[in-house]
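Sample 1 of the test manifest.
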Amino acid sequence: MEAGRRSVSGWTVANVVVVLYAMVPVLWIASLSFKDPSTFTDGSFIPRKWTLGNYAGIFTNADFVRGLVNSIGIGLISTFVAIVFGTMAAYAVARLTFPGKRLLIGVSLLIAMFPQISLVSPLFQIERALGLFNTWAGLILPYITFALPLTIYTLSAFFREIPWELEKAAKMDGATPFQAFWQVIVPLAAPGMVTTAILAFIFCWNDFLFAISLTSSDAARTAPATISFFTGSTQFEDPTGSISAAAVVITIPIVIFVLFFQRRIVAGLTSGAVKG
Amino acid sequence: MNGAASGRASASRGASRAKGRALTEGQRAERRLGLWLCAPAAIIMVVVTGWPIVYSVLLSLQRYDLRFPEDKAWIGLSNYATVLSSEVWWNAFWVTLLITVVSVAIELVLGMLLAFAMYRAIVGRGLIRTVVLIPYGIVTVAAAYGWKYAWTPGTGWLAGLLPGGSAPLTERGPAIAIIILAEVWKTTPFMALLLMAGLAVVPEELLRAASVDGASLWQRFTRVTLPLMKPAILVALLFRTLDAFRIFDNIYVLTNGSQGTGSVSISAYHNLIGGLNLGIGSTMSVLILVTVAIIAVVFILGFGTAAPGSER
Amino acid sequence: MAEIVLDHITKRYADGTVAVDDFDVRIADHEFVILVGPSGCGKSTTLNMIAGLEDITEGELRVDGRRMNEKAPRDRDMAMVFQSYALYPHMTVRENIAFPLKLAKMGREETQERVERAAGLLDLAPYLDRKPAALSGGQRQRVAMGRAIVRDPKAFLMDEPLSNLDAKLRVQMRTSISRLQKSLGTTTVYVTHDQTEAMTLGDRIVIMRAGLIQQIGPPQELYDHPRNLFVAGFIGSPSMNVVPARLEEGLLRTPIGDIPLRGRLGRAAEGPDVPRDVIAGIRPESFEDASLVHDAEEGGTFTGTVDLLESMGPEKLAYFTLDTGAVRSEHLSEAGGEEAGEECRLVAQLDPKSGARRGQPVRLWYDTQAVHLFHPKTGENLTER
């Protein structure tokens, strides 16, 4: 009994530590975002003078709003394409026998480990030559490319968990391979696809390097990159408030996603890696 | 899982055997479908990375500065000589290596503790699992600004804890420490999740048997859990090492590479986008790629890490 | 409805392993054929080759005279019932049963009608709108059957369809499958590792071992006239007793007494290449408590101490240990009999009126004409040559 109580209180302490660890840096920037510019330097964790001015400021800032639109649009399109193509490839990898399967696995493994910076210089040149520089497509292409290995691994792990006999049964019931895939496998893989889509979207949303390298104006610059350009030049002399508010704004949707789909995301993040 | 695995095994056996002779209609359909399904993904991946890599190597062999385009010329390996004899590059290289090694080491320990907490917690397991995902979900740049303001004198609560007047982000050592802190904070949850999946592989019965055999908690961990988790640990280390080596976002926001805190990615970026020196920038890109490849090879061949996605 | 011919079919993998070797069987229209054997004998591979889920290395598969080797499963018009039932978890029972019809683009009304009919046959009507997860094991099994019968295929292929059920349900379902097949008259190939299922269900049994057919025939024929030691050991429960025996002048010397070589035993002993040392086999029911046998003329007797007595109700099983080493043969161990111990054991099936008691000696009578003689090396049944 005594030991049980001690371990319960031990776990409570551990929980508090973990929660503080995860939350404090976030809460700090949230706190800054609600502070009146005159109190930025008071060092207090809880704002002494609350204001929504910083938020009002960034939402009247055309660059930031445009950046949000770019982020959402580019993220959604990239995710959609990566999921469609990734699902197809993952199914093939998990279930079918065809020449070149190992090569595909190898290539996507290479890309998963690839340092993005190594693509920046050639893509910068190539996209400028093709007129893709500073366009949505110019970011969507590398995003799809880097999201594909993730989707292929995660989804093929999900596909492998679907009983193999269901597909045989579908074939015996008269289905073509495509019908077996579309009418039996896809409905069962849907939860996995949702998870993978979230992971892919987080990847696109989070990207910074491509976003600042392959754009030159607000035509395609995504929100994280826009924030980094706030420095000094916007309507506030001190960009601290704007940056904090913007950081909170771009963080919230992802955090909501993550909390809402917590269980699935854990499964998705670990499935591809551990089962291999 | 087992049944599926053997099904696959026999299916792939079937395929290799089939090479020499006529295929059945079903098999032909399967091959066709396989190729068609993979084609879009494969084409995109190869087009977006394949040609640029080749192009990158070509650029690295040229003198090519967009500010002086008329000076463009093939100069063989002399960009490599320039970069490899440059103090800036080696500084960035060692800084990157330091950040990688230290942050991955800390993440491994913290991640293991966190994994245990998530896996074994008696109370609040759900809470821990949820909260731990928050750093993962936050945009790196946003979090980096949080850290930046926290350590900036005046706006910072953490800076305020330091002796008066110190500005850690403007000093090399403290700045690197803060970069590592930001990196560790952001990526430990991912490490913990991978390790937790590894923990789940350890059969509960085995631990019970060990404890009946008189093993202490620590002995159970080092003698039973760790050896069984080894594959998961290696994969997690491989992922995180390669990821840490390309660190960019945190440094860009926190110091932008000043005071000798830039990573190799930051150096390459400054040469490419800031300096518009495509030749030198591409050379650095190629060198980073080579380093990453060496790290991967060391892990896979040296430590026997199962390459993710390989079918054992 | 179809005749299925497996014409010298072989399945060989790239690494050279032969899973099925020269399988040659003609399955008549309406026939119920069982493929039985221990795990790894190639029975499921054979079924999958018929289904088109695995391809045929050599030989020809013909259905109603048409070559099927290259046909995709969907073009073979066969229905399959899987061990795991393979019900589509995202579809209701109705949708599961209707799935083959939907793929065949059958009209709504006819689909409806057929699904209702199949559901009626299988007592599934109340569950049509449930998902498989909400069904019991037996109900799931019936849904799998429903999906098979609904489109009236040329043949049913069943891969251990009852293995996931508990013992009692298995017996029930066995009867209903048998009844269903008889009433529909659809050619059926049924794979099982359970010899009881094989004996009770099939018109004919094909018994396999290591990819090779051991014997084909109606259940009773396999039981009465096993062609070799493997078949003898595999078919029948409890298994046939085997004891070492020696052929001498006019006599078969066995641990349970000397048997005169007359009739079929005599003919067997006179055959070519018959070694002196043989294996004698005798089924448990060929024994009886000697005190209950009125005319013990045509048989031998032996007295042993009962090790263990099991009362089954309609019969008693008495176990004995013989004063000799156990027969060791790969033919027997592969037949999945109990692991042979050091000692030679014997089981006799006695009338419940028998007074045999555990630890007490009892005198047994046995039918000498029911004794089989097997070649110790090849396992061939010398009495069935």
